[in-house]
Write a structure and sequence with these properties.
The chain has 497 residues and is of the alpha/beta class. It is 38% helix and 23% strand. It has 16 helices and 23 strands. α3 runs antiparallel to α7. The protein is globular, with a radius of gyration of 25 Å. The chain has two domains: 270 residues, Aldehyde Dehydrogenase, Chain A, domain 1; 185 residues, 3-Layer(aba) Sandwich (Aldehyde Dehydrogenase, Chain A, domain 2).
Length: 497
């Protein structure tokens, strides 16, 4: 059986540790490979490689860094289908969705290619007599990224292109569930001309994560995952003096006002709830239907959900693939059972779904609950599966209160024809990313991605100009060249005169 290792110092590396985990083909339900789990010593080797590469890389001219990223961008375009196939094989999402993931990651590479413009400092002449001041942004050093299974290519590309464009070197710890796509990215970076050691990949579990969080040579950590792990990453890394951006979980709401086009809203709800089998941090998991349109909206969502084709992501016409593991599928099924027990109305039940010729795959059909109360477990928890809950509200104000009382403020959407209501919502809602008639408001690469509340630990989002800020630190230089006519000490405090 194939063994998947690491990527350290510009080449594949099996590591010193022989502990391994299974990598599944979710559509088939069988193990397709084994992945090596890095030990603390293995992580230290990767950090050492990054540290050794740092002086030369941070001294590399900006134009040269940009040329390497442009070359990487072209290789991504050329190998998009290969990356998509790799993602579908290990994650399960349909090929079209996987290809879209690569394209959105490529957008961040496009943004990072503009690093020479983005890293410009400032200069002020004559702030005092014959004194000038200028500012620069300089790289942190060795930085790490810890990324989730649901976007094995895109989320790493939110991080490392910006980090290395800024002159840092990078160690990535991707999810052990679908580790092959990050290794292919590492190979493409090498082909693009990135020097050895600038980008490294270590696979593994919590041992590898904690080793990165505590390693004294790692200056900054970026993370995307669940809220409990994000909290652990933030607290642990910060206690070791590191800069941290830790993006946590979500419970994204979609508010539908009575004046909305209900067919458009129903299409959006189904797309955003069931795309990638709901395994998205930006998935809509709650629709807040403002009366009197709830009955009609639920009926139209149900009609569309029942028509979805669930199949192997490599099959022609598949709209939704399997969940990533058998354990995760069983966890989602448990939430559906509890929702029924708590009294919610299960309008669409996907538990009995069977896929022809794939009896052992980790498939789970779309589920739709109506009459969900905010105290129910299916409302409170991030299920991370194809389960959509409908909460009914009597007014705009009640709907807004429901959204704002949720501890996670990652993303939110509003569907309406009323511009005044949309503007009010934009101002009043407490979430980091807002969509107006856009169900999944994932910002473009030159804006930042991140939530509020328990969806973010730290104060900096990923990519965009906030990414540039995160991966650099400021330095201000005050300069005066000696005037031969001015001599002698002056003990007075500088007054900028």
């Amino acid at each position: 059986m194939k063994t998947i290792g690491h990527w350290v110092n510009g080449k594949p590396w099996e590591g010193q540790n022989t502990r391994e985990g299974d990598v599944f083909d979710p559509a088939v339900g069988g193990v397709q490979a084994r992945v090596r789990f890095a030990s603390e010593a293995d992580v230290a080797c990767a950090v050492d490689a990054a540290r050794a590469a740092l002086p030369a890389w941070r001294a590399t001219p900006l134009a040269q860094r940009s040329r390497i990223l442009f070359a990487f961008r072209e290789l991504l375009e050329r190998h998009r289908d290969d990356l998509a196939a790799c993602i579908t094989r290990e994650h399960g999402k349909v090929l079209n969705d996987a290809s879209g993931e690569v394209a959105r990651g490529q957008d961040v590479v496009d943004f990072a290619c503009g690093a020479p413009q983005l890293l410009k400092g400032t200069h002020s002449e004559s702030v005092s007599s014959q004194v000038d001041v200028h500012s620069v942004r300089q790289p942190l050093g060795v930085v790490a990224g810890i990324t989730p299974f649901n976007f094995p290519a895109m989320v790493p590309m939110w991080m490392f292109p910006v980090a290395i464009a800024c002159g840092n070197t990078f160690v990535l710890k991707p999810s052990e569930r679908d580790p092959s796509a990050p290794l292919l990215l590492a190979e493409l970076l090498g082909k693009a001309g990135l020097p050895d050691g600038v980008f490294n990949v270590v696979n593994g579990d919590r041992i590898a994560v904690d080793a990165l969080l505590s390693h004294p040579e790692v200056a900054g950590v970026s993370f995307v995952g669940s809220t409990p792990v994000a909290r652990h990453v933030y607290q642990t890394a910060a206690s070791h003096g590191k800069r941290v951006q830790a993006l946590g979980g979500a419970k994204n709401h979609m508010v539908v006002l009575p004046d909305a086009d209900l067919d458009v809203a129903a299409d959006a709800a189904v797309s955003a709830a069931y795309g990638s089998a709901g395994e998205r941090c930006m998935a809509i998991s709650v629709v807040v239907a403002v009366e009197p349109i709830a009955d009609t909206l639920v009926e139209r969502i149900a009609e569309r959900a029942r028509r979805l084709r669930v199949d192997d992501g490599r099959s022609e016409g598949a709209e939704m693939g399997p969940l990533v593991t058998r354990e995760h599928r069983d966890r989602v099924a448990g939430y559906v059972e509890r929702g029924v027990d708590e009294g919610a109305s299960l309008v669409v039940d996907g538990r009995a779904l069977e896929v022809t010729d794939r009896p052992d795959g980790f498939f789970f059909g779309p589920c739709l609950f109506d009459h969900v109360a905010t105290g129910m477990e299916i409302y409170r928890d991030e299920i991370f599966g194809p389960v959509l809950s409908v909460v009914r509200a009597g007014s705009y104000d009640e709907a807004l209160a429901i959204v704002n009382s949720n501890p996670c403020g990652n993303g939110v959407a509003l569907f309406t024809r009323d511009g005044g209501a949309a503007r009010r919502f934009e101002v009043e809602v407490e979430a980091g990313m807002v969509g107006i008639n856009v169900p999944i408001p994932v910002p473009v690469a030159y804006y930042s991605f991140g939530g509020w509340g328990e969806s973010l630990f730290g104060d900096t989002h990923v990519h965009g100009t906030e990414g540039i800020h995160f991966y650099t630190r400021g330095k201000v230089v005050t300069t005066r060249w000696a005037d031969p006519t001015l001599r002698g000490p002056d003990l007075g405090f500088p007054r900028n005169e």
